[in-house]
Amino acid sequence: MTLIDDSPASLPVADDELRGFLDDLIGVAVREQLWILYFDDDDVVIPVMTPIDDIPLGDPRRVLRPVSRFIGATATRVGAATVALVWEEPRGDESRPPSSADAAVCAALLDECGVRVRGQFRSTESGVSEVLRA
Question: Is the pTM for the entire model greater than 0.90?
Answer without folding.
Answer: no
